[in-house]
Amino acid sequence: MSWIIILKLLVVAAALVMFVRRPSLVWGVGLLSVTTAVLLDTFLGTFGREELLAEFGFFFYIISGALFAGATVWVWGLLRPVVETAVPTANTEQIIENKPTRGPAFDQQMLYDEIRSRLGREDILDLIFDLGLNENDVMPLDQDTNQLVLNIMDRAAANGQSGALALAVERILTPPPPENLPRLEKIDSDSPATILRHYLLAHYDLTQLQNIAAALHIDWERLAAGSKQTKVRSLLLYLYRRNQVGELIDQLRRLAGISADT
C-alpha cells in the first residue's frame, strides 16, 4: 500500500509544482481538486470506506460532484488553448468583422496567427509595452495567452493602432540592428518608448543595466525578475510611471561621454 501513498503524493506534488510555475485560476482549481480527491480517498481508505460512505450519505455525492466539476474546469482550461489555436473563436471572428477599414479582413486573422505562433510570452509583454497599453487592461484573469492576444488586438483596433500593432510585431520578430537605431544624442524623453527599449537591449548587458539602475537609485531586485528582456521592460515601466525617463537618458549620455548641451 505504501507505493499507492507515494503515487498520490507525487500527483499532488506535480500539481503544486505546475501551480507555482504557472500561477493561474486553472491550475489553482486543478491543485485544489487533486489535493481534495487524494485526501478524501486516503481518508476513506484509512477509516473504512463502506462505513464512511454510509455516514456521509447524500453529502458524499455533493463532494464528488464538486470534485468532478473542478476537474472538468481544469481539463478544459488545459485544452482550451489547443482548441482555440486550431479553431478561431467567436472573439477572433468578431475582431475580423469589426476590423479597421485599412487592409483586407484576413490580415487580422493572419496577424493573430503570427503572434500566437511566433511570439513568446515575454515578446507579447513587450508588444503591450511598445503599444503603450496598460497590462491590467488586457491581461485576462486566468492568464490565457489566446485571450491575451485577442484583448491586445481588440484594444489596438479600438485605439486606431492596428497599423502600429503590425509594425510592432515585425520589429519584435526582427529587431533593428544597433546601427539603425537613432544615435543617443537624438533620443530624448519624448522619443517613442519602443526606441528606448530597443536601444537598451542593443547596447547594454545585464551588468551594465544594473549599474545604470544603481546610478538612478533604483533597487535592481525590485524590478521584475527574469531575462534581460524582462529587466529592460520593467526598468522603463518603473521610470515612465515616475516621469524619470529624462534622468535615464542623462545617465546614458554621461556614460557615453556626451555633453548635456549636445
Please state the average pLDDT score: 80
Number of domains: 3
Query: How big a fraction of the residues is strand?
Result: under 5%
- By DSSP, the count of extended strands is 0
Distance between the termini: 78 Å
Secondary-structure element string: HHHHHHHHHHHHHH
Structural class: mainly alpha
Globally, the shape reads elongated
The low-pLDDT segments are 84-106
Radius of gyration: 25 Å
Count of helical regions: 14
Describe the main β-sheet briefly: none
Helical amount: over 70%
Your description of this structure?
This protein is mainly alpha-helical and 262 residues long. The longest helix is centred in the first third of the chain and has 29 residues, at 58-86. It folds into 3 domains: 2-86; 90-173, no CATH class; 178-256, no CATH class. It has 14 helices and no strands. The N and C termini lie far apart (78 Å). The chain has helices at residues 2-21, 25-47, 49-56, 58-86, 90-97, 106-118, 121-130, 135-138, 145-158, 162-173, 193-203, 206-215, 228-241, 245-256. It is 72% helix and 0% strand.
Q: What topology does this entry show?
A:
Blueprint: H1 2-21, H2 25-47, H3 49-56, H4 58-86, H5 90-97, H6 106-118, H7 121-130, H8 135-138, H9 145-158, H10 162-173, H11 193-203, H12 206-215, H13 228-241, H14 245-256
